[in-house]
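Input record (one chain):
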Amino acid sequence: MENYSVDRYRQLCAQVAQAASAAGRGPGAVRLMGVTKTVPAEKVNAYIDAGLDLIGENRVQEFLDKYPTYHKQGLEIHFIGQLQRNKVKYIVDKVHMIESVDSLELAREISKRCAAIGKKMDVLIEVNIGGEASKGGILPGKLTEFLTEISSFSGLRVAGLMAIPPISEDIAVQKHYFDEMYKLFVDIKDKKIDNVFMETLSMGMSGDFQAAIACGSTQVRLGRTLFGARD
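The corresponding structure, as predicted from the sequence alone:
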């Protein structure tokens, strides 16, 4: 497994860097996140030892079970799944960022829990860029209003945006949604809202990460293509 993890990780790092270069961006412009849902801790650790320094966790209980055994030196952990307010207290002391903020109530709870432990949590706002009823996220037209409302929350800091567009194998369709996200990202940055910093644009997964990078993504979330098919 160790050789596989080293080879696969390096291969994907090269693909990410190549896509960034093709878009006229530097080799360090895009971060590779390993999405660890259902991946055993020992397998994740093999990749961490191979150089993976950013992982994304989807499920609170699974994360809590695996967290004690992770090789945490130099490791950055983001929570990327849908997060219930009553679970926030279990993770705020363990993660570096929460990427799936999609409601005022959740933002308020994160801020409250972080303020209580003297922490300011970096968060990404999830945008429902395709307007899909089956997905969470803030609708694009409501984003500025939402950001203005949460900008005063002392226990969090808005570090950027994330989105999972409608699934399509058509690159033109993929790029349409990624372009729309990038426009939002730039527009919000230009508004200079207090406590809102557009540093991270998290979009692109195993099936579309190269299109996302071409459109301005700064972070791609790779699960299957990095770790192999899930058990």
